[in-house]
Amino acid sequence: MTEASRKGRFDGTWWIWAMAGTLFLMYAAVSVRLHHRMLTSSYDLGIFQQVVRSYAEGHLPVSEVKGQGFPVLGDHFSPILALLAPFYRVWRGAETLLVAQAALIAVSVVPLALWARRALGSPAAAMIGACYGLSWGIASAVGYDFHEVAFAAPLLALSLTALGNGRMVTATCWALPLLLVKEDLGLTVLVIGLVIAWRGDREVGTFTAVAGLAGSVLALFVILPAFNPGGSFAYWSLVQGPAAGGQGGTGGGMHLLDLLHQGTIGLVTPQTKVTTFLLLLAPTLFLAMRSPLLWVALPTLVWRFASSNGLHWGTSFHYSLVLMPVVFAAFIDALARRGTSGRSLRRYLAGSAAITLMILPSFPLFQLVQPETWRTDSRVMTARRLIAMIPDGVTVQTSDHLVPQLADRTSAGLYGSVGGRPDPQWVMVDTWVPADQRWWPGQPLSVEAEKQHLADDLRNGYDLVAERDGYVLMRRRT
């Protein structure tokens, strides 16, 4: 390729990179601003910050939020997070993780938009890229802390773009790193391999499928149990139902017939699951269902809808992030395979844009245009002043939303949590957290129990350092 042709190619695609850059700024602004307003949480930003900090300090990841010295490789298999360690060593703080997440998701726009441009033209690429970048699954993810699946977004976009363009070996090369993102994504790699085989390259497809299955089996049955203090994968209990262990613990799984029953009868009920499925396909006007690439979404949908944890079923949190590249890749593939053009193509694109814009105000990206996003509550300023009084390197127990503020320079755990470090050097608690916001492990104590716990600590070994605007700061007597 000559210098002139390379320049012409860049000139024709610069706007795609500019669109990705704009989306990056939007994602980063939302997530960093939420953190600065102390609206992030121990589950999960605090945990992931402790993981990346562990890698940056040169040892295997542990999280005080999960329990004293808890080995995180026994919770989820996500060694890819070590790639963030060099950045965290330079810019130590939760913002590093949030900005990295914004960058990873924004980059995933580029291969999809480039594919749409080649197959459907520049106007279609601009519309599809924008609809993908503003989609509700992405908005929910950037509006709720940081998660390892941010790495999956560009890998899936690159793999499925290659697959859709017949570059099967390249598709495999981009799919295999998903094994290092999270233990369940090996099943996604398995399905990518099956689609590759179905599209004609049986040798490459078989290798990819076997590698994906082997990766998940190794992570679920060997690596995670080896690190987990309970000796098994901690989340088997999520497919057991309340009678078999509920949502916590390290249950031993369920019989195959029980799992099949849960995964078939339970997949379409309750209504939350149906709503999520419809919203997932609605931005593509359900055209994505005409592409075999949509099968890649099946493993994620199955484990989510078979879970006994209702939080997995809906549109909140980060759970739909890995689905968005799959759905929009299937959308592009379906449009290209149909040879859609002219008025028909414009009709599909207009419908996709209309649905995306209609859904957008219900999800976190819309916070960018809300005035309260840019205001700082006076209690936040109080909390920052009290946090500044806590020395570096000490052990702390604190409230859920304060953990991410302290995890970069202290050993921070949850106040009152079972398995937490006993007798921390410092305690800082927000006593004004209402009862209806104590539903997550980040707030293990009820309002009444927390008051009693604080009173007991003050009588038995702690001095009151400050009490302002509902925040209580205590230091252990030496």
TrEMBL record:
InterPro entries: STSV1_Orf64
Keyword Transmembrane annotated: yes
Residue ranges crossing the lipid bilayer per the database entry: 12-30, 97-116, 123-143, 149-166, 178-198, 204-227, 277-297, 317-336, 348-369
Keywords for this protein: Membrane, Transmembrane, Transmembrane helix
Pfam families: DUF2079
Protein name, UniProt field: DUF2079 domain-containing protein
Species: Streptomyces tropicalis
